[in-house]
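can u pls check wat happens w/ zinc ion
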Amino acid sequence: MSADLHLHTTFSDGTDSPETVVEAAQAAGLKTIAITDHDTLAGIGPAERRGREIGLEIIPGIELTTETAETEIHILGYFIERDNQALAAALAKIQKGREERVCQICEKLNGLGIDLSPEKVFALAGHRDAGRPHIARALIENGAVSNFKEAFNRFLGFKGPAYVSHYKLSAAEAIKLVLAVKGLPVFSHPGVSKCDDLIPELMSDGLLGLEVYYSGHNQGQTQHYRELARKYGLVVTGGSDYHGSLNGRESSLGLFTIPDELVEKLKNEHLRRN
Ligand code: AMP
Ligand code: ZN
Ligand code: FE
Ligand code: FE
């Protein structure tokens, strides 16, 4: 039995409902999963309900998007308390920012001669705090591009002509927010962010873990981050970053797992601190 601690659902930019993710995880032989949607808690409850029904353990989580001048830093929060007003207010502000940004990106696309309305993106996402992957899917449906890669390369990428940022917390704020709701803050896919030099500073803000095992890390990166975690005394986590099958990513649930003992260590760390 094993675990996957990084999964997205339709409540952010995954293309499987929480129930489908839970069922697929069990079918793939997993014992424990964490739901870690971007900037929202909405998928956790439905996943927990389905998990209870079929006997799959769900760890409540979130993935908060933050950015520095050079790169994005994603902060995972595990075991967060969900009935906290400060957390709800912070997430509502981020979600509003995401909604406004969809409108701004559509305006830029319209200026580039592409016909796309925010309402189409919201409808496709099923919610208004949509992300760039939803816009990419809408562009594919429109026939403006033929795949995700083209959508990001031509329009939506960080340097693309339709890129718009949205309101985000700083990494320090995200870490402190997770700690304030008794969660464990973990630096997500550090090999993607490529800012190892910031880890000591993130630790001084309260960072407790490193996502060493990640579907997008190569062997060298995994080894490197395992050593960094040991050096800094950070808890080790891992996950696939599953987004469903319609998201332009190759990711098969159950093919990327971590052993149960890492989940136990994470739980022990959580208990020790709370
Ligand atoms: P957002 O949070 O709305 O800015 O969207 C970020 C998400 O877009 C990431 O989590 C990825 O899933 C996806 N993404 C970013 N860059 C690319 C890319 N070049 N190709 C495909 N998907 C991407
Ligand atoms: Zn995503
Ligand atoms: Fe991420
Ligand atoms: Fe993710």
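The beta strands are 2-7, 30-35, 57-67, 72-78, 184-187, 209-214, 235-239, 258-259.
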